[in-house]
Amino acid sequence: MDLNKLKRPPAIAAKFGVTLIIMVALCSSVLLLRTTIESFADGEDYASSYQKRFQVVKRLLPERGTIGFRSDAGGGDWFMANYALSPILVEYGVGPRVYLLNVTRDKAASVEPERPGEYSVRHTAGGTVYDFGGGVMLVERDSR
Amino acid sequence: MILTVFLSLIFPLLAGWMVASGLLGVDGRSGRLTLSALSLGLGFGVFSCLVFVLLLTAGPSQKALIVTEVVLAACIVAYKARHWRRYTNAKEAEQTADNASMLTRILGLCFYIVLAVSLTTMIVLVIKSPHGQWDAWSIWNLKARYIFRGGADWRNAFSGILQYSHRDYPLLLPLSVAGSWILRGRESLVEAAALSFLFTFAVIVLLTSSLGTLRSRSQGYVAGLLLLGSAVFIPEGASQLADVPAGFFYLAAAVSLALYHSSAASEGRLLALAGLAAALAAWTKNEGILFLVAITTALFLFGFPKTPLTMRARKMAPFLAGALPVILVLGAFKVGVSGAANDILSAESRLQKLLSLSRYTKVGQAFATLLWGYGGWGVSGAVLLCGYLALVGVSVEPRNKPTVYTLFGALCIMFGGLLFIFVLTPYDLDWHLQAALPRLLLQLWPMFLLTFFLVARTPEAALASESKERLRHKTEEVLPADSLH
Q: What is the pTM (predicted TM-score) of this model?
């Protein structure tokens, strides 16, 4: 086997190699742009929608502290609660006196407010529920 | 708002330019582009270290940060004014003096078309997901928010409640974002997006321009086309994760080493630059620590051929000196702030996993499958690269040989290290491989491309053989065969 040929293939092969890279790069980048633009129709991304969803409760919370969290969705909404409500620490579980309730399946559990951004208040046996609609509720347990 | 964002980013860029120009000093078009790209990454690296030291000493104080930045900038400007030197790269000067060949022009045109398309794609992706992808808002931007919004309670970013955000992860990215917010006095989504945008395009510029200096401008364009054309790179860059910045620092270290080996005097300051970049990779992601170990080991073993061991250790000194300040910052963070053990290294039943052959098989298969199809071109990346090498040929310039061996060695150590990380992982192996492996390979992708194009023959050289052949044929036609003897 002539190793020199392997090291120095004919120029026509090199032309083909360079053209191949150009074509692959052009096609790949145009396809990626097309797919990206098409994906725009999928609607708002997860983080943006949850940022808006949890942002509304912030005005009822103190500037610092720890609240609890309970949800019927996956773990991602808890991460988003911390992201949206920081610097407040959101602990998973209902240990703290105040906790955020995120109900995504049973829409009837939540009462829609009269105007967007507002909330309704109802008193229950154990505490007070601040209902922002859409399944987002802030629960404050009565202090003993 | 744009003006204040620009002003908050100008400090890191200025700091980066000062450091990079002090250590690099290359002239010519490609050299200036390399310097610009390095300035950007190094700038944010230095800035984030500074913000960290400031947090420890004065808390997230806007005034303290501005004063520190201004004093440091003044000191560096004064130093630069006293030690102003200009370096010229003879080869670069020669290249720029010549008119670019038709091939270079065509490749340049194609490169800029693909760059424009990629730029558009990235803008669309950033607008669609302004908070970035999952790990961006659950780890990196989350920490930035807790540090900035927390004020005096900035250490809450490392609270046990946020254990899922990997408290031991290094802080280059969160502190670059939080530091910009501290400088501005308010936060927005622009900084994190701008940072991911800048790092992504800095990788492209660094790869293209450095190969322009080390090999030829056409070689740089082909490498840039391959990087931009791989469907994984731009979406990952827009996702605001730390993998592209980590990849930037791997590449920056590799480029600095290549420039060191190709410089006539093997100047130590280029080794210091390589050390700084490698340490900043460790300050970006935990895998960067593995990279720092890998590149240090590979440099010691292959970077100084035909040199006695004691002399090698001495020659390594500038590299280690460049890395040391950032290693100290990283150590202070790991010991004094994070206080959390690494989830993989502290996992239970490590010995049992290390002795499990099935885990090695599974990880090996995942590596092989991903490497075979890497790039997202629709054709096998391995076939495409091997095919390209077969078509243009192999030609390693003697001055680049130590770099090629060092980078190849570092890549092998990295692959070995990553394999063990997956074997030891406490998470579900299939899930972990699927979630992390593509991003880990992406970190190595720009550095691999640099190594690949240091080995591949340049398009100019490959096509010049045709011109020589044609010239020979013409001579034979004009002159009778006998007259040639």
A: 0.91
